[in-house]
Amino acid sequence: MEFWNNIVNTALLGTDKKQLNPEELPPAIAEAAEATLSARQKDAEERFLVTAAIAHSYRQCGVMPYQDEAINITVAAQETLPYTNKHATKVFQQIIDEDAKELLNLWLRRCSEKGLIVAPELIPILLHKGAENKKLRDLIVRCCGQRGIWLSEWNSKWKYVKTIAEAKNDTGENSDNGNQDTLSIWETGTPDERKEALQQVRATDPAQARTMLMQTWAAENVNTKVDLLKLLEAQISDADKDWLETLANDKSQKIKDTALQLLKRITSSAVMQRYQQLLQATVQLKTEKILLGLSKKTVLQIALPNHFDDDIFTTGIEQYSDSDFTENEFTLLQLISAVAPTFWEAHLGIAPGEIINYFSKSDSSKKYLPALLKAATNFKDTRWAIELANADIDFNPAALPLLPEKLQDEIMVKKMAAEKIVPYAVLFTTKWSVPLARMILRLAAVQPYQYGKPFLKEIVIHIPGAILDELPGMPTGENYLKTLWASHVIYITKLHSLKQNTLNAFA
């Protein structure tokens, strides 16, 4: 269409240098164009733009879609699940408008639990959300149905849909295809894709993941080796020990340090055996006579050596002392925190609660209880974490995820400051108790800039309705913060209403 090229050239050059000629335009619009171009009451730019608009409309009329017989568009498979109702769809749109990810997560969970799928016009919105947020992908695939799988083929950012859908298919053929795709990504993918592929394999077949890494090890650079090696912490076991112990002698200090940290998660490794030998010799249960020898009692005896052998200070144990610990005591503290708590059950032959009780009986041994909690955290030992939650110690927030949420809630309220618990409280899958919600929202009232609307959107699913009436009266500390907090109270109420509407929509 030569006439359109003339229009584009005129736009590029400007109407001062080039004018449109009606004779250059198609006969069908020449009369309208001449009338427009001759209307001197309008300036040259306006006459040109009106003419260009007429030409554009003419150009669009009757345009046929591109035809290519090589393109084979299949029809989406028939849906087997019913759609959500109009009320649920309306709530969905409101959640999208607020960009409230946690409320969207709640909406999708309810939709999936009820065996429903979203209306077709909402599918592109959800697929875009899945491209941005991996945590939502599984739910999104379930809630988009067959049309979601079909539509995902037309956007490379949505390819995760097919991967998840195929992974849910139990047939051996598709399982083999999924494994081949993962191996292909491992060989040719980007660094992030390769890490994700190794994580996936490690979760289902730890030995294969280790073999994959060993096969490509020589070709990786040091930083990549470190990043990939860290992924072996998941599902780590005795089977990893031999290879990791060879890496402990690597010429790269980064690799040596990473391998050593992994070996400290394997109780049969040489370094852990060395630690356990030292603890066996240092901490023991002893029976003492009391009441002039008429009775006996068992006590925990800690017999520190004059000095620990220098070899352990090459394994990450630090030489240090401060006002609370002598150098040897600090070394013992580190050894206790490095060894799996189950070691004490085997060594002392009693249950966790009894062991903790023995450590609690004197100030000289009670100071090591935080090290036992750190060990429980490192080895993700839920039994020991629960027992230590009841001990008279400052509870380390890092151990909170090991506890049942109800116990976490109680510990947070009784033993911790609000600032320390927020990162862990937001991980709850249930509502907070009113006392816990009160702690956190009072913090938000005092620091409304730090804990603003993004934070409120993240925590709304945890806020119990019983706390809402207290919000307007929460102290802000400074008068100038009252107006901002008042607006946040209104926003919390709005978000809570959306949460309730979501629950009601799928009731």
Explain what you see.
The structure is a single chain. This protein has five domains: 2-60, no CATH class; 101-167, no CATH class; 172-266, no CATH class; 278-306 and 323-403, no CATH class; 417-507, no CATH class. 58% of the residues lie in helices and 3% in strands. It contains 26 helices and two strands. A hairpin with a 4-residue loop joins strand 1 (283-290) and strand 2 (295-302). The radius of gyration is 34 Å and the shape is elongated. Residues 171-175 have low confidence and may be disordered.
Summed up:
The chain is mainly alpha-helical and 507 residues long. The chain has helices at residues 2-13, 27-37, 44-60, 86-98, 101-113, 123-132, 137-152, 160-167, 172-188, 191-204, 206-216, 222-230, 241-247, 253-263, 270-282, 327-338, 342-348, 352-360, 363-366, 369-378, 382-389, 405-415, 418-425, 434-446, 453-459, 482-505, and strands at 283-290, 295-302.
What are the salient characteristics of this protein?
507 residues; mainly alpha; 5 domains; 26 helices; 2 strands; elongated
Overall morphology: elongated
Share of β-strand residues? under 5%
> Cα-atom Rg, whole angstroms?
34 Å
The poorly predicted ranges are 171-175
Task: Give me the secondary-structure topology.
Elements: H1 2-13, H2 27-37, H3 44-60, H4 86-98, H5 101-113, H6 123-132, H7 137-152, H8 160-167, H9 172-188, H10 191-204, H11 206-216, H12 222-230, H13 241-247, H14 253-263, H15 270-282, E1 283-290, E2 295-302, H16 327-338, H17 342-348, H18 352-360, H19 363-366, H20 369-378, H21 382-389, H22 405-415, H23 418-425, H24 434-446, H25 453-459, H26 482-505
Antiparallel strand pairs: 1-2
Helix pairs in contact: 2-3, 4-5, 4-26, 5-7, 5-26, 6-7, 7-8, 9-10, 10-11, 12-14, 13-14, 15-16, 16-20, 20-21
